[in-house]
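As the next step, I selected for study one protein, both as residues and as discrete backbone shape codes, as given directly below:
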Amino acid sequence: MLILLKCSAAGAIANGLCYYAFYDHHPTNNTVAAAAVADIQEAGLSFYSYLILICVLKERSRTAFMSLFWSGIVIMVAVRIGILTGRARDILENTNNRQGTIDHLHNVYFSRIALIECMGAFFFIENSASAPRLFPHLMKSTEIRVAVLAFVGISRSVTYSFQTTAQSATTIAGQLDRFVTTLKCLFPEMML
């Protein structure tokens, strides 16, 4: 439950920093710092499944899950560094020249989150046969989480690909992206 609260708080802080960085005028160094921190919170919900599964899975299943999970996280970190670098350079140079590349990297990032969630759901469902008492709870949790996060991931991938400016809700797609981001931030509260 603590990870859900942390994810929700991180999402709220990130949205505030996004507003600070992209909707108001501040010194360039402050904008770069706010944009960097605003971008790093998205993957936190994946650790919800991780914390449950490392306690439930045994032997080979646990090793396979941990290997796949951490491989996904390493890829996400590498993509996030690319996003951060491109965004920081655009802010420092006062341009949007890298926005197309940043959009594509975000799509890779969001799809990686979706893959990690689907993998977690697979291991939850596979493990539920060995724990019949937990099956109804795991199934409800998995169904809700996968359904909502799949919607959020797909929506963010679609809406973010239409962004013309960095994180600004200046178009309908940008406004929808901000709305879906808000839904993602509220998701942990729903799981409580």
Summary: Helices lie at 2-22, 28-38, 46-56, 59-93, 99-128, 135-160, 172-191.
